[in-house]
Amino acid sequence: MIDYTEKIRETARRLLEKGEVEVFIGYRKGSVPMMNEPALIRSPEEANQLHWDSNCGLNLCNYLTKRTEKIGIIANGCNSRNMVTHIVENQIRREQLYVVGIPCKGMIDHRAVRRAVNHREILDIREDDETLTVRGTDFDESLGKRDFLQSNCRICAHHNPVIYDEMVAEPIEENGGVEPYKDVEKIEQMTPQRKWGFFTRMISHCIRCYACRNACPLCYCPTCFTDESRPQWVGKSSDPTDTMTFHILRAYHCAGRCTDCGACERVCPVGISMRQFTKKLNKDVQEFFSWEAGLDLQQRPPLDVYRPDDYNDFIK
Amino acid sequence: MKGLLEHIGIESGRLHFSWVSSAEATKFVEVAQSIAAEVKALGPAKYLIKKRAEVA
Amino acid sequence: MNDWQPIITTFLCHWCSYGAADLAGVSRLQYPPNFRIIRVPCSGRVSPKFILAAFRHGSDGIWVSG
Lengths: 316, 56, 66
Prior knowledge:
Chain A has about 325 residues and is an alpha/beta fold. Chain A has helices at about 1-20, 75-90, 110-115, 150-155, 180-190, 190-205, 210-215, 240-255, 265, 275-290; strands at about 25-30, 35-40, 70-75, 95-100, 125, 130-135, 140-145, 165.
């Protein structure tokens, strides 16, 4: 991980010095442990701020939408898939990007780490390949990194970037034989009443802060449906019906586009696993259209093309 | 659409899609009858109804 | 509650199903009275928002037909 950081800084410095890119987008250490923040680096001197470890779970594609300059950007598997989605949706041109690929080993779930130390305040966290060392004022614990991966990283099948101009390290081996949709299948077995109960309970803490929307690289509409008032599709209070409507529509807007990067869950202040909504849709597009978002620059997404053999069993 | 709504617990029998040409009045009637019967069998909708604000 | 009648919000395409409904009427074909028909220029106009909005306003069922 440390060698990635050095390599990233070096690359950023080189690109900025040569003037190949005007801005380099990466991460820097946040002010709180486990909260790395995106950083836009504009001069070679600033390149030392760049950092990479297992807390870079925010999606950098948010910072690409409609930019006009030449951009250097670091990309792990899911970030690069979102870049492809952005390019396909004409939010950025491929020529503008210089993609520095990172073989990603998964991000850690900061909530799980907090739970593991009984919510005592964490002052410092260090990691090597296998372990995390968490330090606070009165404790010092070692945790196995594998057990604290984000739930989406555990089922990730695309650790290596899909598009890149340069890699900071050799691609790593992909997970074989992951079963990404086990939890979705479990919910599918439930009766409608139980499903409704499950999801109502799940979103009952939602405070409608829209952090999930803001962290999502797909949510770049100039006016979000939640902000529309004529007609008002969804109320602004935390009324359960409004909250459910918001979550259903938010998920639906991601259909066939979501790369399961987990940014939404990571930023949720109350820890809702809203990936349960988007995952179902991912499973459906996979089943009906054999489609996974962000893998191919040439192909149009399934929901904006018509093919005579499209799935239409639901139509009478 | 149907997939997700069903997934979160809205009975699939509540949402229907169909193709009926303007010349197919008989098909229209058939589909209408089957849908009405299906929704009737499910009973009143319980979920996702926005309650009117109690304080006005 | 045997006499309960569901309300089914129905989105009909102007060119297809609305025509079919019209023809059914002209031909004196009987069909259930539960439908509240909204004519749209094309069934492609119906967005998921409409469907959720209809459920939110208390429809028991929704039918989109093109």
